[in-house]
Protein backbone atom coordinates (compact mmCIF):
# COMPACT_ATOMS: atom_id res chain seq x y z
CA UNK A 1 0.00 0.00 0.00
CA UNK A 2 1.36 3.37 -1.07
CA UNK A 3 0.70 6.61 0.80
CA UNK A 4 0.43 10.16 -0.57
CA UNK A 5 1.59 12.87 1.87
CA UNK A 6 1.06 16.54 1.10
CA UNK A 7 3.19 19.23 2.78
CA UNK A 8 2.47 22.87 3.55
CA UNK A 9 5.77 23.69 5.30
CA UNK A 10 8.60 23.87 2.77
CA UNK A 11 11.30 23.61 5.46
CA UNK A 12 9.76 20.38 6.79
CA UNK A 13 9.43 19.11 3.22
CA UNK A 14 13.06 19.98 2.48
CA UNK A 15 14.26 18.19 5.62
CA UNK A 16 12.25 15.07 4.83
CA UNK A 17 13.04 14.69 1.12
CA UNK A 18 16.60 15.98 0.58
CA UNK A 19 18.33 12.83 1.95
CA UNK A 20 16.22 10.74 -0.44
CA UNK A 21 16.84 13.01 -3.45
CA UNK A 22 20.58 13.22 -2.80
CA UNK A 23 20.98 9.46 -3.19
CA UNK A 24 20.83 10.26 -6.93
CA UNK A 25 22.08 13.82 -6.84
CA UNK A 26 22.73 14.38 -10.54
CA UNK A 27 19.52 12.71 -11.72
CA UNK A 28 17.55 14.73 -9.17
CA UNK A 29 19.35 18.01 -9.82
CA UNK A 30 16.09 19.61 -10.96
CA UNK A 31 14.00 18.98 -7.81
CA UNK A 32 17.03 19.53 -5.52
CA UNK A 33 17.95 22.79 -7.21
CA UNK A 34 14.38 24.09 -7.15
CA UNK A 35 13.93 22.97 -3.56
CA UNK A 36 17.11 24.70 -2.39
CA UNK A 37 15.97 27.96 -3.97
CA UNK A 38 12.60 28.07 -2.19
CA UNK A 39 11.76 30.79 0.30
CA UNK A 40 8.65 31.74 2.22
CA UNK A 41 7.81 34.12 -0.65
CA UNK A 42 8.09 31.44 -3.37
CA UNK A 43 5.02 30.34 -5.27
CA UNK A 44 4.59 26.65 -4.46
CA UNK A 45 1.68 24.73 -5.94
CA UNK A 46 2.51 21.28 -4.61
CA UNK A 47 4.95 19.58 -2.24
CA UNK A 48 4.27 15.89 -1.69
CA UNK A 49 5.75 12.43 -1.31
CA UNK A 50 4.54 8.96 -2.13
CA UNK A 51 5.83 6.37 0.31
CA UNK A 52 5.83 2.61 0.65
CA UNK A 53 5.90 1.82 4.35
CA UNK A 54 8.45 4.21 5.84
CA UNK A 55 10.38 4.65 2.61
CA UNK A 56 9.83 7.49 0.14
CA UNK A 57 9.59 6.25 -3.44
CA UNK A 58 8.60 9.45 -5.28
CA UNK A 59 8.88 13.16 -4.51
CA UNK A 60 6.50 15.58 -6.25
CA UNK A 61 7.31 19.28 -6.44
CA UNK A 62 5.50 21.98 -8.40
CA UNK A 63 6.64 25.60 -8.51
CA UNK A 64 5.94 26.05 -12.25
CA UNK A 65 2.28 26.55 -13.21
CA UNK A 66 2.52 24.08 -16.08
CA UNK A 67 4.39 21.08 -14.65
CA UNK A 68 4.97 18.87 -11.62
CA UNK A 69 8.51 17.54 -11.14
CA UNK A 70 8.79 13.82 -10.38
CA UNK A 71 11.98 12.58 -8.71
CA UNK A 72 14.02 9.73 -10.15
CA UNK A 73 12.00 6.57 -9.43
CA UNK A 74 13.39 3.33 -8.02
CA UNK A 75 12.83 0.14 -9.96
CA UNK A 76 9.26 -0.93 -9.36
CA UNK A 77 6.54 -3.17 -10.73
CA UNK A 78 3.87 -1.82 -13.07
CA UNK A 79 1.29 -2.45 -10.34
CA UNK A 80 3.09 0.06 -8.10
CA UNK A 81 3.35 2.56 -10.94
CA UNK A 82 -0.38 2.17 -11.56
CA UNK A 83 -1.03 2.87 -7.87
CA UNK A 84 1.21 5.95 -8.01
CA UNK A 85 -0.69 7.20 -11.07
CA UNK A 86 -4.01 6.64 -9.30
CA UNK A 87 -2.81 8.49 -6.19
CA UNK A 88 -1.65 11.47 -8.26
CA UNK A 89 -4.97 11.48 -10.12
CA UNK A 90 -6.92 11.37 -6.84
CA UNK A 91 -4.83 13.80 -4.81
CA UNK A 92 -3.95 16.48 -7.38
CA UNK A 93 -7.06 18.31 -8.48
CA UNK A 94 -5.68 19.62 -11.77
CA UNK A 95 -2.53 17.99 -13.14
CA UNK A 96 -1.03 20.58 -15.53
CA UNK A 97 1.89 18.45 -16.69
CA UNK A 98 4.56 16.06 -15.49
CA UNK A 99 8.33 16.01 -15.97
CA UNK A 100 10.56 13.12 -14.93
CA UNK A 101 12.49 10.02 -15.96
CA UNK A 102 11.11 9.04 -19.35
CA UNK A 103 9.98 5.42 -18.99
CA UNK A 104 8.38 6.00 -15.59
CA UNK A 105 6.70 9.28 -16.55
CA UNK A 106 5.37 7.81 -19.80
CA UNK A 107 3.72 4.99 -17.86
CA UNK A 108 2.25 7.35 -15.26
CA UNK A 109 0.80 9.63 -17.95
CA UNK A 110 -0.65 6.67 -19.85
CA UNK A 111 -2.26 5.34 -16.65
CA UNK A 112 -3.66 8.76 -15.71
CA UNK A 113 -5.28 8.60 -19.15
CA UNK A 114 -5.84 12.30 -19.79
CA UNK A 115 -6.27 12.82 -23.56
CA UNK A 116 -5.07 16.42 -23.30
CA UNK A 117 -1.50 15.48 -22.37
CA UNK A 118 1.14 15.65 -25.10
CA UNK A 119 4.94 15.56 -25.19
CA UNK A 120 6.29 19.08 -24.80
CA UNK A 121 9.99 18.23 -24.46
CA UNK A 122 12.03 15.06 -24.94
CA UNK A 123 15.40 15.43 -23.22
CA UNK A 124 18.54 13.60 -22.17
CA UNK A 125 20.45 14.38 -18.98
CA UNK A 126 24.23 14.30 -19.23
CA UNK A 127 26.93 14.42 -16.56
CA UNK A 128 30.60 15.39 -16.83
CA UNK A 129 33.43 14.57 -14.45
CA UNK A 130 36.37 15.69 -16.59
CA UNK A 131 36.90 17.60 -19.82
CA UNK A 132 37.88 15.62 -22.93
CA UNK A 133 37.82 18.47 -25.42
CA UNK A 134 39.22 21.70 -23.99
CA UNK A 135 38.25 25.10 -25.39
CA UNK A 136 40.52 26.31 -28.17
CA UNK A 137 41.92 29.80 -28.65
CA UNK A 138 39.21 31.44 -30.76
CA UNK A 139 38.04 33.48 -27.79
CA UNK A 140 37.70 33.46 -24.04
CA UNK A 141 35.10 32.91 -21.36
CA UNK A 142 34.03 35.79 -19.18
CA UNK A 143 31.29 36.65 -16.73
CA UNK A 144 28.45 38.63 -18.29
CA UNK A 145 28.20 42.19 -16.95
CA UNK A 146 25.35 44.66 -16.76
CA UNK A 147 26.85 46.51 -19.72
CA UNK A 148 25.96 43.43 -21.82
CA UNK A 149 22.26 43.60 -20.91
CA UNK A 150 20.97 44.80 -24.29
CA UNK A 151 22.49 41.77 -26.04
CA UNK A 152 21.75 39.19 -23.35
CA UNK A 153 18.08 40.07 -22.87
CA UNK A 154 17.49 39.54 -26.59
CA UNK A 155 19.38 36.24 -26.55
CA UNK A 156 17.29 35.02 -23.61
CA UNK A 157 14.13 35.98 -25.47
CA UNK A 158 15.25 34.05 -28.57
CA UNK A 159 16.42 31.07 -26.51
CA UNK A 160 13.04 30.73 -24.81
CA UNK A 161 11.29 31.06 -28.14
CA UNK A 162 13.42 28.26 -29.63
CA UNK A 163 12.64 25.81 -26.83
CA UNK A 164 8.92 26.56 -26.85
CA UNK A 165 8.87 28.52 -23.57
CA UNK A 166 7.97 31.93 -24.96
CA UNK A 167 8.34 34.93 -22.66
CA UNK A 168 7.81 38.64 -23.13
CA UNK A 169 10.60 41.14 -23.77
CA UNK A 170 10.02 42.49 -20.26
CA UNK A 171 10.36 39.02 -18.74
CA UNK A 172 13.55 38.34 -20.69
CA UNK A 173 15.05 41.59 -19.39
CA UNK A 174 14.07 40.73 -15.80
CA UNK A 175 15.61 37.27 -16.15
CA UNK A 176 18.79 38.66 -17.70
CA UNK A 177 19.19 41.18 -14.86
CA UNK A 178 18.63 38.44 -12.27
CA UNK A 179 21.23 36.12 -13.84
CA UNK A 180 23.78 38.92 -14.20
CA UNK A 181 23.30 40.15 -10.65
CA UNK A 182 23.66 36.60 -9.29
CA UNK A 183 26.87 36.10 -11.35
CA UNK A 184 25.36 33.03 -13.02
CA UNK A 185 25.71 34.01 -16.68
CA UNK A 186 28.82 33.66 -18.82
CA UNK A 187 29.67 34.46 -22.42
CA UNK A 188 32.23 33.34 -24.95
CA UNK A 189 33.93 36.43 -26.35
CA UNK A 190 35.56 36.47 -29.78
CA UNK A 191 37.35 39.59 -31.04
CA UNK A 192 35.82 41.62 -28.17
CA UNK A 193 32.30 40.55 -29.16
CA UNK A 194 29.89 38.28 -27.28
CA UNK A 195 29.15 35.30 -29.53
CA UNK A 196 27.62 32.64 -27.22
CA UNK A 197 26.16 32.51 -23.72
CA UNK A 198 25.69 29.83 -21.07
CA UNK A 199 24.53 29.91 -17.48
CA UNK A 200 25.04 27.86 -14.33
CA UNK A 201 22.09 26.92 -12.15
CA UNK A 202 20.77 24.59 -9.46
CA UNK A 203 23.98 23.99 -7.48
CA UNK A 204 23.88 20.93 -5.21
CA UNK A 205 26.52 19.48 -2.91
CA UNK A 206 28.59 18.03 -5.74
CA UNK A 207 26.95 19.12 -9.00
CA UNK A 208 25.94 22.25 -10.89
CA UNK A 209 23.87 22.42 -14.05
CA UNK A 210 24.82 24.21 -17.27
CA UNK A 211 21.82 25.85 -18.93
CA UNK A 212 20.70 28.69 -21.21
CA UNK A 213 23.26 27.65 -23.83
CA UNK A 214 22.52 29.88 -26.82
CA UNK A 215 24.33 31.06 -29.92
CA UNK A 216 22.62 33.48 -32.33
CA UNK A 217 22.21 32.14 -35.86
CA UNK A 218 24.97 34.29 -37.35
CA UNK A 219 27.52 32.83 -34.91
CA UNK A 220 26.64 29.15 -35.24
CA UNK A 221 28.80 26.36 -36.71
CA UNK A 222 31.99 28.11 -35.63
CA UNK A 223 32.70 26.11 -32.46
CA UNK A 224 31.73 28.94 -30.11
CA UNK A 225 29.09 26.99 -28.15
CA UNK A 226 31.41 24.03 -27.69
CA UNK A 227 34.18 26.30 -26.40
CA UNK A 228 31.83 28.16 -24.09
CA UNK A 229 30.39 25.00 -22.52
CA UNK A 230 33.80 23.34 -22.25
CA UNK A 231 35.40 26.37 -20.58
CA UNK A 232 32.43 26.95 -18.25
CA UNK A 233 32.31 23.28 -17.25
CA UNK A 234 36.03 23.34 -16.47
CA UNK A 235 35.58 26.54 -14.46
CA UNK A 236 32.90 24.86 -12.33
CA UNK A 237 35.13 21.83 -11.74
CA UNK A 238 37.93 24.22 -10.75
CA UNK A 239 35.54 25.85 -8.28
CA UNK A 240 35.15 22.52 -6.50
CA UNK A 241 32.12 20.84 -8.05
CA UNK A 242 32.74 17.15 -8.68
CA UNK A 243 30.42 17.10 -11.68
CA UNK A 244 28.53 19.36 -14.05
CA UNK A 245 25.33 18.34 -15.78
CA UNK A 246 23.10 19.55 -18.58
CA UNK A 247 19.93 18.66 -20.45
CA UNK A 248 19.77 18.33 -24.22
CA UNK A 249 16.93 18.13 -26.71
CA UNK A 250 16.96 14.58 -28.07
CA UNK A 251 15.62 15.93 -31.37
CA UNK A 252 18.84 17.91 -31.83
CA UNK A 253 21.58 15.35 -32.63
CA UNK A 254 24.17 18.08 -33.23
CA UNK A 255 24.10 19.41 -29.67
CA UNK A 256 24.13 15.88 -28.24
CA UNK A 257 27.22 15.06 -30.29
CA UNK A 258 28.98 18.29 -29.28
CA UNK A 259 28.42 17.72 -25.57
CA UNK A 260 29.62 14.12 -25.70
CA UNK A 261 32.79 15.28 -27.45
CA UNK A 262 33.40 17.69 -24.54
CA UNK A 263 33.09 14.79 -22.08
CA UNK A 264 29.42 14.65 -21.12
CA UNK A 265 27.96 11.17 -20.67
CA UNK A 266 24.23 10.33 -20.72
CA UNK A 267 22.75 9.15 -17.43
CA UNK A 268 18.97 9.52 -17.81
CA UNK A 269 16.32 10.37 -20.37
CA UNK A 270 13.70 12.86 -19.27
CA UNK A 271 10.33 13.75 -20.74
CA UNK A 272 7.91 16.63 -20.18
CA UNK A 273 4.19 16.24 -20.75
CA UNK A 274 1.85 19.21 -20.69
CA UNK A 275 -1.77 19.86 -21.52
From TrEMBL:
Chain ranges of the N-acetyltransferase domain: 139-275
Annotated signal peptide: none
A Pfam family per the record: FR47
Domain of life: Bacteria
Protein known as: GNAT family acetyltransferase
